[in-house]
Design brief:
The chain is 19% helix and 16% strand. By secondary structure, it is of the alpha/beta class. The protein has one domain: Spore Coat Polysaccharide Biosynthesis Protein SpsA, Chain A.
């Protein structure tokens, strides 16, 4: 079973469902998809809201290994991604030599705000944690106590690992940053990431690949044809 956890933000419910749809509709292997939702983590995740976090799952994403009892592998993705490929192909890249595997962006946004006026920040390894293959048995530092208390930079810069050698790399096509990375045909991409804001927000209705997102929304909500009697 491919275990996928998708960050959930109450302001982006439709984005979460479209992300889940694009994963399940293309997977060639059994897949389970679960939200990383603050409502479901009450009593476990009690960290105070940080003025610099832009989503409800900015830090709770790091509880995925704990949610898996620190066993096996899991995939975490942000809710603002569109998966255009068979997720089994990404799952097949798991490598026991690493604790996590990510696309190693050098992302340095110039703007200071993004969707809904949320703060934009720049730091080393930015966006590495937006798509993570996690070898849960090697992520045992990510206890609820640690995730509740560690700084945001320590979490997102993977300072909870014993060294950089435990961070493996996956192909860039699995985390293409929309309107930052040079545009490519959809056939050359596996995962679009609307990191600054997606077309479910009016202000980003015409962002890059907006038509691709609307196409997936339409496919998800298309009513079934009535069955012949």
């Amino acid at each position: 079973m491919i275990r996928v956890f998708v960050g959930y933000d109450s302001r982006e419910t439709v984005a979460w469902h479209v992300t889940a749809h694009t994963i399940s509709s293309r997977s060639s292997e059994p897949v389970s998809i679960a939200p990383v939702s603050l409502q479901q983590l009450q009593g476990v995740f009690n960290r105070q809201q940080d003025a610099r976090q832009s989503t409800e799952f900015s830090f709770s994403r790091f509880l995925v290994p704990w949610m898996c009892d620190f066993q096996g592998w899991a995939l975490f993705v942000d809710c603002d991604v569109l998966v255009l490929d068979d997720i089994a192909r990404l799952w097949a890249l798991r490598d026991e030599a690493f604790a996590v595997q990510v696309v190693k962006h050098d992302h340095r946004p110039r703007e200071t705000t993004k969707f809904l006026g949320q703060p934009q920040s720049t730091y080393p390894k930015k966006n590495w944690s937006s798509v993570m293959l996690m070898n849960c048995a090697r992520c045992t530092a990510l206890t609820p106590e640690y995730v509740n208390q560690a700084s945001g930079l320590d979490l997102h810069r993977f300072n909870w690992l014993e060294g950089e050698h435990l961070i493996g790399e996956i192909p860039h096509r699995w985390n293409h940053l929309v309107d930052y990375d040079p545009p490519l045909p959809e056939s050359e991409l596996s995962c679009l990431h609307f990191t600054s804001g997606g077309p479910w927000f009016p202000d980003y209705a015409e962002c890059g690949y907006a038509d691709a997102w609307r196409r997936e929304l339409a496919a998800m909500t298309m009513p079934l044809s009535p069955s012949p009697l």
